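re the bet — no i am not wrong, look at it urself. input seq straight from the record:
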Amino acid sequence: MADVLTFTDRGIYCPAGDFYIDPWRPVDRALITHGHADHSRWGMQRYLCTDIAAPVIRHRLGDINLETIRYGETRQIDGAKVSFHPAGHVPGSAQIRIEVAGEVWVASGDYKTVPDGLSTPFEPVKCHAFITESTFGLPVFTWTDQTTLARDLNAWWAANAEAGRVSVLGAYALGKAQRLMNMLDTDIGPIFTHGAIENTNEVLRAQGIALPDTTRVTADFDRKATPGAMVIATPSAMAGTWARKFGPDHSNAFASGWMAMRGVRRRRAADRGFIISDHADWQGLNSAIKATGAETIFVTHGYTSQFTRYLREAGYDAHVVSTEYEGETLDREDLGETADA
């Protein structure tokens, strides 16, 4: 099998097209899967991403040379035929299909296979080789279905509101925060957001993505005037002085795939943990790989060695690939937002 893509110290490179996919060092031409900061970085001479992902990427990176492409549109870049396909991760996220001399490889970026009502749903793409993440590449990671999650989330909020407490929920500013907002029962109370999240809301609303009404948290936030409010914050903000404005009796929770692991919620001193991620769980990873029909699998960021070993035992030609992608973490601002909030 010919190497359609190679793995370099600057990123995933296509020699036939002379471009990189989600590079982490400055290059001439970058094809970008989505807007989180570990996949879309500043410093490239030229960028290509989906039309849906472009507004957030421009918001984050500023005045860049950015060209857009629609899902399913085919583009010839030198000796490579390229198209972008829905990854279901966040709005505008894409898998990138590259065909060279009849050989097809797919770089999936980050993805999830369960529709979330916000992102364009994941579509499997047939290929010879598939590059997959493994953020949650262990059987312990199984996500709560969205209907059950919405019920549990609103029950927690309603109980806090009845007791006069503010509910503070930690979630990524791009993707997960908006997904959670759309699950909330706004009859319970008003929704407030951390500045990084509200910045992202404004960008998404401007491109026609429907979200419930939210209010930016400011320095003069009065918890006594809104005792039953829901506040959605970046995880890092919840650990600092920013959260003190909600009073000593506020209830805090994290929404993350890591909540599936015993002890994580306790270490984060959270009252509740909601198991949800914009990355594929164990079943999602396996179903996505099977649907591609690929025999060769390259495994990036996450439980790479464990997941690769499992794939080899299942009969795949699987390999670990070292990258600088970070997956889902509770220790960063958002993998997409800076501290401008």
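see?? Helices lie at 54-61, 146-162, 176-181, 195-206, 264-267, 282-292, 304-313. told u. also The radius of gyration is 20 Å. so pay up
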